[in-house]
Amino acid sequence: MDDLQDARVIFIGESHDQMEHHQIQWKILKDLLARGKAIAVGMEMFEKWQQPILDRWSQGRLSEEEFLKEVAWEKTWGMDYQLYRSILEEAKAHHLKVIGLNVDRGLVRKVAQHGIEKLAPEDKLKLPEMDLSDKDHLAYIKMIYRDHQGGSAETFEHFYQAQTLWDEGMAETLSQFLHSSEGTGKTVVVITGSGHIVYDFGIPKRFYRRTPLPYRSLVLKTWKENLAEDIFRPEISKPIGDYLWITHPSPLEKKKPRLGLILKEQTEGAGILIERVLPGTPAQKAGLLAGDQLLSIDGKEILKLKDIHDAVVQKGRGKEIHITILREGLKREISVILPPEK
Questions:
Q1: Can you give the residue ranges of every domain in the chain?
Q2: Paired strand residues for 296
Q3: Which of 120, 247, 260, 316 could pair with 283 in a Cys bridge, judged by C-beta atoms 3.0 to 4.6 Å apart?
Q4: What is the pLDDT of residue 269?
Q5: pLDDT of residue 149
Q6: DSSP letters for 110-132
Q7: Strands 320-327 and 293-297
């Protein structure tokens, strides 16, 4: 904590479903406030269009029920709100600015499906400045992507463009805030998935390119037997972050089996849209991709998000589920193995 005092940005990378990671974030936030720091909180969980709602929340003008309804939490993020509740309550109690860092998921989806080149001119105008030339970052994303089944070179190119768009977009929003009058003198605690900050590849390096202010990175990881393979990459010379904090996994009895997807109900068309596939999850290992539409699970039609959650919970840990998806106009069958008991 002493070392963090000179940083203007503190990146804390989480595993989204781990309660202990969020408790660590909350404790760091409380400690910084106790030391008299002027704090803002940047969160991947929110998009820029939600900023007016976040501002009303921080000003104490919304109840929790009103807030969750207005930000459409279940549709835009979808993780258990209890994981983030203490952080958002702290922000409300101290009237801290909460910055919606994420870019328009619809734009990311278009890039993931068809690539930057095929964007409409009006969509290209929405793109941040993007650096796609970092060979180390490209190699790292390829390592993440290699578990996908049947992905073409073109599909990977679009996948990489979409990943870079996420990082560049969040870096740009963060930079714009710190250049604004509202950001003067503020220290920003950035809460995001660890994949966006490891080895500085994602948001940190791209933020620093725009705004060379001192920062620190804390990567939170959950213990597993092959954890060292995730942390020490022989092809990457730099450390995973300034600090690495390894936690026990959440107790299995408190954890429902998860596919590892960020999903969105569609106003038009069939199925549920995959907005994002979380790295290292059953969904990623099975080859599901952002932009896929989930049509059915084990032959049962999917009409709403609850249908997916119910099907996964009923199936149980260690079981195989069969998912019908629509990808680029074609139906495909994909089998996903849910995480086992041990």
A1: 3-104+163-247, 261-337
A2: 301, 324
A3: 260
A4: 61
A5: 44
A6: HHHHH-GGGS-HHHHTTPPP---
A7: antiparallel
Tokens 């709602």: give the residue.
Answer: 53
- Here the tokens at position 79 are 């993780």
CATH tag for 3-104+163-247 (out of 3.40.190.10, 2.40.30.110, 3.40.50.2000, 3.40.50.11550): 3.40.50.11550
Q: So what's the pLDDT on residue 270? A: 65
pLDDT for 342: 54
pTM over 0.85: no
56 residue type, one letter: R
Per-residue model confidence (pLDDT) at position 150? 47
Is 281 exposed, middle or buried (CB count within 10 Å of its CB: 0-12, 13-18, 19+)?
Answer: buried
Domain 261-337 adopts which CATH fold? Pdz3 Domain (2.30.42)
Residues of the chain below pLDDT 50: 148-150, 253-254
pLDDT of 253: 43
